[in-house]
Automatic annotation (TrEMBL):
Transmembrane segments: none
Domain of life (superkingdom): Bacteria
Annotated Gene Ontology cellular component terms: cell outer membrane; pore complex
Biological processes per GO annotation: monoatomic ion transport
Keyword field contains Phosphoprotein: no
Subcellular location: Cell outer membrane
InterPro entries named among the record's database cross-references: Gram-neg_bact_OMP (IPR050298), Gram_neg_porin_domain (IPR033900), Porin_dom_sf (IPR023614)
Name of this chain's protein: Putative porin
Record's subunit section: Homotrimer.
Keyword Membrane in record: yes
Main location: membrane
Record keywords: Cell outer membrane, Ion transport, Membrane, Porin, Signal, Transmembrane, Transmembrane beta strand, Transport
Organism: Acidovorax soli
Length: 358
């Protein structure tokens, strides 16, 4: 049997060596996915394509660009599958890469840098997961924010050190070389995640953290804590968030605290999503950042954001958003796709785009 699909060689001929390697790996995964589907209880190729036009301004500098990722999830391509081992036991894998569809490139130095995990789970005892995965301290600042962490209204715009963390940590959003445990889904609404990650020689990469939450009916609330030794001290992250769905509107918010090297960076956010008819959703949020400690006292920022999403179908949506950031002291926060912020200068962003999930 010819190991190369008929189309593989002529396509690869036009690719640069690095892109060629990525293409061959993705093609091999796809071929493996379809070739082993009969032995799996579920194998899926999934992803999101999101493109927008963004006009962003920081101080006296502005830029208009085409960017990706304005509607909760950035552009991505993934492969996931589950094998039923019997007796409530299952083995699963998840590989996910971030795409830049405006140029056709991949984001990040690693192909599957968004997530690459293999796991074993049982219906009665939960899931043990290994690999590169989302840290427990990430979820509250994403799940309980109307815009998530992406786009001009994203909560990440005024979080210090995003996406790594403060004090030299690299583990706010994701951790490589991790061993994680997730509670089973039959605990009456209680959910949780714990994780330890090895540094493997990289300063600021070791991580220990956990998250515990409760979701039932209209209520969802969770708290998380994590620590990372970095540059001779320990970076600490704590957050709590929640939401309540009233039907006519879903209110949400979180509080975040980051401490390292004698400094403290705190954030809070309050927001809401409001359904408009059967296909529209209005998003609004106000967020505040404040710094304390040597050299950062008095620094801070406020972000006000408003947006609208219009669903064309269950998978495709048009969206728009606007946000404004008011910086204080030496803070230089800016919206996504903005020119580099200037200390104490305000920033803003206007965005219109389309997203499609598959």
């Amino acid at each position: 049997m010819n190991p190369h699909p008929p189309f593989a060689r002529p396509v690869r001929a036009f690719l640069a060596p690095s892109a060629r390697a990525a293409w061959v790996l993705a093609a091999g995964l796809a071929a493996g996915t379809f070739g082993t589907a009969h032995a799996q209880s579920g194998v899926t190729i999934f992803g999101t394509l999101d493109l927008n036009i963004t006009h962003a301004k920081a101080g006296n500098t502005s830029a208009t660009t085409m960017s990706s990722g304005g509607n909760l999830i950035p552009s991505r391509l993934g492969f996931r599958g589950t094998e039923d081992l019997g007796g409530g036991l299952a083995a699963s894998f998840w590989l996910e890469a971030q795409l830049l569809p405006d140029s056709g490139a991949l984001e990040g130095s690693a192909l599957f840098h968004r997530r690459s995990t293999v796991s074993l789970s049982g219906t009665s005892w939960g899931e043990v997961r290994l690999g590169r995965d989302y840290a427990p301290t990430f979820w509250n600042v994403s799940q309980f924010a109307p815009f998530g962490t992406v786009g001009v209204g994203g909560s990440a715009n005024i979080i210090e050190g995003w996406p790594f963390g403060t004090g030299g940590a690299r583990t706010f959003v994701r951790s490589a070389n991790s061993l994680g445990y997730l509670l089973p889904r039959n605990l009456g609404g209680v959910y949780g995640q714990a994780m330890v990650a090895a540094a493997e020689g990289a300063d600021g990469a070791r991580y220990t953290g956990a998250r515990l939450g409760y979701a039932a009916g209209p209520v969802d609330v969770a708290a998380a804590y994590g620590e990372t030794p970095a540059k001779g001290q320990t970076s600490k992250v704590a957050n709590i968030g929640g939401s309540y769905n009233f039907g006519v509107a879903k209110l949400m918010g979180y509080w975040l605290d980051q401490r390292a090297a004698g400094t403290k960076h705190s954030n809070w956010l309050l927001g809401a999503t409001v359904p408009v008819g059967e296909v529209g959703t209005v998003r609004v949020s106000v967020a505040e950042a404040k710094a304390r400690g040597t050299g950062v006292g008095g620094d801070g920022a406020r972000q006000i954001a408003v947006g609208y999403v219009h669903a064309l179908s269950k998978r495709t949506a048009l969206y728009g958003a606007y946000s404004r950031i008011t910086n204080r002291g030496q803070a230089a926060f800016a919206t996504s796709e903005s020119p580099e912020g200037a200390p104490g200068a305000n920033a803003s962003g206007l965005q219109f785009g389309i997203s499609h999930n598959f």
